[in-house]
Write a structure and sequence with these properties.
The protein is α/β, with parallel strands linked by helices. Helix content is 37%, strand content 8%. Helix 4 packs across helix 7 and helix 7 runs parallel beside helix 8. The structure holds 2-acetamido-2-deoxy-beta-D-glucopyranose (2 copies).
């Protein structure tokens, strides 16, 4: 299930119209499109014939609407915070939901599906949406946008937007480690190589389709395509022990992801591919929870806090905590909203530290806005009118 597995119920139209008070005007980028697994799914699985869902209580109890949406969390996902930080006043709607229509499509969409991953079979086993199918939906979505606003505006939107991908963890946790056929056939290293093949294909397909200008070849257009891919996070076992071997595999996978990203950047003109590290922020919270204001890092909030995820984490689960703000994990697998906020802050710093001075200036605006108190801890400084991250 990736790490936060997620799903957004189509009925909660409220999300599309949700207004987050951001102190500034236009978003920093025209569009945000999201792909991947449960870490970022906001409800695409709700109406699928899959067991990997979370559109029932107690999921969503601390969300803006206090309703389950299909997010695998008590509240917001890291990418929800990211959308807010970028200045969007709504979250990219789940592409398969009722929310994905009209104007709400003009600032992005979410194609992610809990249970999906780089390995097509992972998604197929759980009847989730494969990454290939997510890209197919993305292209269909582009056609819709072109019909709505024309090619020029569509090009500005897609080439100037951000594409964000979260995958990898579910391929190991929900497939490789529990699938004897797979783990007999491949070593973790070989399996990682297979996943890298799929990652490369994905990046290539999306990059090449960012320019929707018809005959003009995308490679002739000097567009910058920002793409962000999160790596494989650290894993904690049900026995509340850091599972050393599994984390070794995660580190090795993450190294390959770095190398592959470099190769892709060299090969694809205009591509700015950033690998977000979610491994270390999460590991830090688990190892030193009190540093970030957490008290419980070993046990999840939902149920007994050891295994309950998806259907097992439900309104009848016994032992669910009443207040998840000091828990790192919401369910047996997915971080709480509070942890997601810390991860999102880290992602923001990582993204901005790689980019222009304007971004830091923007970050300072965000810090000064009372909407994001947590960001005030990010160290920025100014020298001769230029702004830097510490
Ligand atoms: C990947 O590269 C980034 C930036 O160079 C680095 O901070 C990170 O530690 C690397 N990750 C791994 C797993 O090597
Ligand atoms: C949960 O706990 C935090 C601090 O521990 C507190 O600020 C917050 O008000 C609590 N929320 C609820 C719903 O009790």
């Amino acid at each position: 299930m990736g790490f936060p597995i997620t799903t957004l119920v189509s009925i909660f139209l409220a999300v599309a119209t949700l207004v987050v008070s951001v102190a500034h005007g236009d978003p920093l980028v025209p569009m945000l499109c999201i792909f991947g697994d449960s870490v970022v799914d906001v409800g695409n699985n709700n109406n699928l014939n899959t067991l990997i869902k979370s559109n029932f209580p107690p999921y969503g109890r601390d969300f803006v609407t206090h309703k389950p949406t299909g997010r695998f969390c008590n509240g917001k996902l890291a990418t929800d915070f990211t959308a807010e930080y970028l200045g969007f006043t709504s979250y990219p709607p789940a592409y398969l939901s009722q929310d994905a229509k009209g104007k709400s499509l003009l600032t992005g969409a979410n194609f992610a599906s809990a249970g999906s991953g780089y390995y097509e079979r992972t998604a197929q086993i759980y009847r989730a949406i494969t990454l290939t199918q997510q890209v197919a939906y993305y292209k269909e979505y582009q056609d819709t946008v072109v019909k709505m606003v024309g090619k020029d505006r569509a090009n500005a939107m897609f080439s100037g937007g951000i594409h964000l991908l979260s995958a990898g963890s579910s391929d190991f946790i929900q497939n490789y480690y529990i699938n004897p056929v797979l783990n007999r056939a491949y070593s973790p290293d070989q399996f990682s190589d297979i996943l890298m093949g799929s990652f490369s294909t994905f990046v290539q397909l999306v990059t090449e389709s960012v320019w929707v200008g018809g005959e003009e070849d995308w490679s002739d257009n000097p567009t910058t395509n920002w793409m962000f891919a999160s790596n494989h996070h650290a894993i904690w076992g049900g026995s509340n022990q850091c599972v050393g071997k599994l984390n070794q595999d995660a580190i090795s996978f993450n190294n390959k992801l770095n190398t592959t990203s470099q190769v892709l950047q060299n090969k694809l003109p205009g591509l700015k591919l950033v690998v977000f590290d979610i491994y270390h922020p999460l590991l830090d919270m688990v190892i030193k929870p009190t540093d970030q204001g957490f008290f419980e890092a070993r046990k999840a909030c939902c149920g007994t806090g050891t295994i309950e995820t998806s259907l097992l984490c439900n309104a009848r689960s016994v032992g669910t905590c009443s207040n998840a703000t000091q828990y790192v994990y919401w369910d047996g697998y997915h971080p709480s909203e509070a942890a997601n906020q810390v991860i999102a802050q880290d992602l923001l710093e990582q993204g901005f530290s790689l980019s222009r001075e304007d971004c830091t200036r923007y970050l300072i605006q965000l810090k000064q806005s009372s909407s994001f108190p947590l960001l005030s801890s990010i160290n920025t400084y100014e020298i001769d009118g230029y702004f830097w991250l510490q």
